[in-house]
């Protein structure tokens, strides 16, 4: 398993090797998998992790709701798509723009069939269909919306799909070294726990900033 000192040293090397930019860079954890046939269903991976230190930046969350949640959802989410407006999303360009704008999508549970029908072929390939595991499928209860929104600000998704690699944002450079280490170790633990053969499948592990080279941990 990765040790805290090992990750801390890697973060320090990453900062030293990175050129200061005019924007706050994201930091990703990159994990290559060995002896992993991603065509086999058991090697597919889709898990969420709530980062102990948070991302250090705001992420955009949209919702699909019916009339009973519209008012409350409008106070909470960055964009609200009402059930009555679903049929208005006919142009691919409009739906693609919606998907591009938001990191997470939350849906009222009884609308999931209609969400899949109208938006599924665009949300699915991006891994952004409302995910029950992440709490993104909700009953029509107003008091659930703000806690879900706040949780998603700290949540990232781990995916293995078509390539034997995992790339996960674990924070931004403005987080402290200790905060980044806590996030990286939390993500790495979930990866190891969920892989069929655990750490035996883990190859090289890197950290990388938006505009930097990768640094091996």
Give the low-confidence spans: none
From the 3D coordinates, which CATH architecture of the largest domain would you assign?
2-Layer Sandwich
Sum up the overall morphology in one term.
globular
Quantity of strands, as a count: 10
Strand order in the sheet with the most strands: 8-1-9-10
In helices, the fraction of residues equals: 25-40%
End-to-end CA span:
11 Å
Order of helices and strands: HEEEHEHEHEHEEHEE
Q: What does it look like?
A:
There is one protein chain. The chain has helices spanning 4-17, 67-76, 92-101, 112-123, 145-152, 177-194; strands at 26-33, 45-50, 61-65, 79-82, 104-108, 137-138, 155-160, 165-172, 202-209, 215-216. The chain is α/β, with parallel strands linked by helices and 217 residues long. Strands 8-1-9-10 form a 4-stranded antiparallel sheet, covered by helices on one side. The chain starts with a helix and ends with a strand. The mean pLDDT is 94.
Keywords:
Rossmann fold; 4-stranded parallel β-sheet; 217 residues; single chain; 6 helices
Please outline what is shown here:
This protein has 217 residues and is α/β, with parallel strands linked by helices. Helices cover 33% and strands 25% of the residues.
